[in-house]
């Protein structure tokens, strides 16, 4: 079965210098993470004490479609008039997927928030990690193994098969 999405761990750490109508907010800020053009979203709890510098440090897991080019982080503030959006940041997937870093690498990123008029309105700090699918271990016995030897000492949690991995060093191959 082909996968159509991948799991994305987003830790919304904090935000800085948030303003509502050009005045620093006093309390009740939360963050929402949304997949690109998707109705799926996750929201942090409401920080009632951080004011213009809220802290959440909350991990949100999102199913990100394989074709998605970005996801969105929105910061909202609960006011007496209802919930108002303070700022939005569009996070490109290319900022944390591909390149020279391994799959599952933890990225710490900061992005400028823009209000509904497109003006700067604070910064959001996040960490992002693409969840690596777990590999299913194959049960092998020493009769089926072409590499390795039976471990005789079972004092470390039972016997098993120890395997060697060929490592190229210079012009010679050694098994460690």
UniProtKB/TrEMBL annotation:
Entry-linked Pfam families: C2
PROSITE patterns xref list: C2
Naturally occurring in which organism (per UniProt): Prunus dulcis
Gene3D superfamilies with a match to the protein in the record: C2 domain (2.60.40.150)
Superkingdom per UniProt: Eukaryota
Domain C2: 1-106
Annotated protein name in UniProt: C2 domain-containing protein
Residues annotated as signal peptide: none
A GO biological-process term: defense response
